[in-house]
Amino acid sequence: MTHLRPSSTPRPLGQSQIAVSPIAWGMWRLAGEDIADARARVEAALEAGITLFDTADIYGCDTPAGFGSAETLFGQVLAEAPALRQQMILATKGGIHPGIPYNSSATYLTQAIDASLRRMGTAQIDLYQIHRRDFLTHPQEMAASLTRMVEAGKARAIGVSNYGIHELDALQAFLDLPIVSTQPELSALRTTPLHDGTLDQAMARDIAVLAWSPLGGGRLAKALHPAAVMIADHGARYGVDITAAALSWIMVHPARPIPIIGSQSPGRIARSIDAYKVEWSRAEWYAVLEASMGERLP
């Protein structure tokens, strides 16, 4: 019987020439003022072979430090250890601001990427993403703004986050550059991208899938949902925890989603690569999907 197993081999980020790891580290919970502690998390990810680092300007807005603080803390780490920047692919996002809430106008995005560059102390962002669709900005305006970013050398490649397939189509229609990535919420408890065309579109167009909240917002780790129980039991057969098993369940899909892990524990970050140890038969994989859906497949 054929078993599916995630590959640990780096791959191109969509149609770009940027090579990335099959697992990414996300900074939506990077907070505080302890630079040494933040650096330990960054180095733990790099030591685990994780090279794709994902953040956003809005990360930290729910902390006392406020909007932009996750990028600022990350920038302080890079300022203390500049050599780290050369070991990673840096992705960030813009377009959300509390109280607006969405703005992807040309003026706003120009200001947003410049501010992100300053906060992180870097000359270029490898992947710049529109964080969420702004319904009040024409995709042609967004496309022109994103193109100028790349032409100015501020970004190497562009992507989208939380976009539907038709929204991505509309933006790509006005771009000569490829949209190299899309970032949906995807986990064994959030399987919508399997059904709404997101993963199909990604495979058809060679778009990288960056899966946010791959542990269902932490709900999988509690192992209370029937799908979580199955994943935990499956992981135990390979000597790994439920986190690694849950990541592997996502990763074996042929779209090769890249889960963005959000752990702030160096130890848990290091253990994320246990996902490469886990194999799935088709029957086992579909059993988890049915448990997640709460119904049998036809």
From TrEMBL:
InterPro entries in UniProt: AKR, AKR_Detox_Biosynth, Aldo/ket_reductase_CS, NAD(P)_OxRdtase_dom_sf, NADP_OxRdtase_dom
Domain NADP-dependent oxidoreductase, first and last residues per copy: 23-287
Record GO cellular component, one term: cytosol
Gene Ontology MF term list: oxidoreductase activity
UniProt cross-references to PROSITE patterns, sorted A to Z: ALDOKETO_REDUCTASE_2 (PS00062)
Pfam hit, one: Aldo_ket_red
Coiled-coil positions: none
Protein name (record): Putative oxidoreductase
